[in-house]
Write a structure and sequence with these properties.
By secondary structure, the chain is of the alpha+beta class. It has a 4-stranded antiparallel sheet. A two-stranded parallel ribbon has the order 1-6. The chain has a two-stranded antiparallel sheet with strand order 3-4.
Length: about 475
Amino acid sequence: MKNGRIGKRYSLVAGALTVSVVLAAQDSTVHHLSLRQAVDYAGKHNVQVRNALLDIQAQDASNREVTAAAYPQLNGSIGATYNPNVATQTFPNFIAMATYGVLVQEDVRKGNGNPIVPPADYGLIQAQFGTRWTASAGLDLSQILFDGQVFVGLQARATSMQFREKALEVTTENIKANIYKVYYQLVVSRTQVDLLDANIARLDKLLHDTRVIYENGFAEKLDVDKLSVQIANLQTERQKVLAGISNGYYGLKLLLGMPIRDTLILTDSLSDEQIKDGILENGVYTYADRKDYQYAELGRKLNEFNVRRYQLSRYPTVSLTSGYSKNAQRNQFDFYKGPYFTFSNISLHVNVPIFHGFATKARISEARIALEQSRNQLEYLKLSIDNDVEQARNNFRTAIEAMDYQKKNLALAETVYEQTKKKYEVGTGSNTEITAAQTDLKTAQSNYINALYDAIIARVDYLKATGKLD
């Protein structure tokens, strides 16, 4: 096989691949997982999925906050104030003014018989109003009767929640696609190891036979040495493949959210027929099948709500408020006795927006631009989906054809090798011929494994492009 290509494949998927690796850890857990079970496991433990679930919880809390704005708001208050120096106020001497007014009205005269004449200026007097201690306790109730922005927020709650839930589905689908690819590539890697083991077994048998021929004087020592070198190379390649598979298991565990110390065993198998599975026969798809398209649609709806919210901010807001309180004034801190005075009110407030420096108009324009952008993104997404489907279909069809061809080629290479080996054993073939046959067989095996990998990737990409990745 081509070490460079195989090594590159494993290095590219090492961060997201899997294989059955048992770690020496006392608290490790063994997981026997089918593909469906692996996807379900990731749905509970993958960090990205868990964060998307938390986003849904956060949106639920945000929706409750929006709902709370439409409910009555009730606040209670209680307080006491101490005035070391009660404020003194200066005002006209109304006492003297009233006194003179009575005297003039009753025609009271001076001792000399002259009428009393009020002074031109009664002067000012000072007095303290209030007590050293005051206390109050009360309730304030408010209720929004009309606020366009609040009402739009209430209408948008369901769409906002759907938006978060769809984001979770998009995240889950992307992770699922990676799991599909990695899981099946690791399943196919068993075939790769089996082929290497078969090659080593073939060469071991050929080495044994060649030694016998050499001991009988019908072969050269060089022929024995060449076979020994080929076996050593295959064993080295096998160790590299096993190391790559082991790293793939670490990567899959990371993708699943599984502790590295745990043991992962893959229980599903995969055949050529399963890869084909007739999915190209039904090429019908709709944009709505794609999770990312559904997600973009919900984003457009939210932008529509945003435009309506700013448009309704131009309308007046109406609210009702009321208050009820008990108040007391004392010169001593003895509020447990004495009178308390009741105060209550009910008010209707109408707030009419008149001019805010064109800020509302600017917000509406920004929201409309964002809405138009989301519509453009939807149109572009449709084009992208069409492109994805056609490319994925072509790639899958080509991959299937290549897989079938390489499978036939592998069978032919095995036949050629066996015939060449028989000729060599009876002395009618040369060591050069059997070496060339072995090289061709190894190349055919490598090409077949690569074709299997390509077909797996192409299948998953096609299912994802058509929105049918179950």
